[in-house]
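My current task is to audit a protein record that another person submitted. Alongside the sequence sits a line of tokens, each denoting a local backbone shape. Where you disagree with what is written, explain briefly why. This is what I was given:
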Amino acid sequence: MNPTATPPVLPPTMMTPGTMSPVPGTNMIMPPVTDIQAPLTIDLASMPETLTSPLYTPGFMRTQLGKLMRVEFLIGDVLNDRTGYLLSVGANYILLGAIDNSHTILCDLYSIKFVNILAYNTPLSAILQPINPS
């Protein structure tokens, strides 16, 4: 069999659900798209203590869901910060929703050095000012 040969592609009228489908304008085919599944439900009782106990960072961060925060990350020898609403906490990441709701930021939990949890009435001008290291 020739590894560079392209697989045959059926015309769209011959496609059946769950089969490979052609990519328009190319000789490639793509796997079938599965139906969107229901949201993932998590059983907190079966999760390890490091993810649920407020004595550990992920457990504590879960108690702050929905709050506005500035998170500082140590990347190399430079502190970088991101500001947003805490949307979710995983085993090794957090999700921050941008202030303007334009995007979501996936952040590495192990790079976090400081988390500033901001009061609900904090003005945006105070949030967006650079942090002065002391």
Observations:
- The first helix runs from residue 49 to 52.
- Residues 7-18 have pLDDT under 50 and may be disordered.
- The radius of gyration is 23 Å.
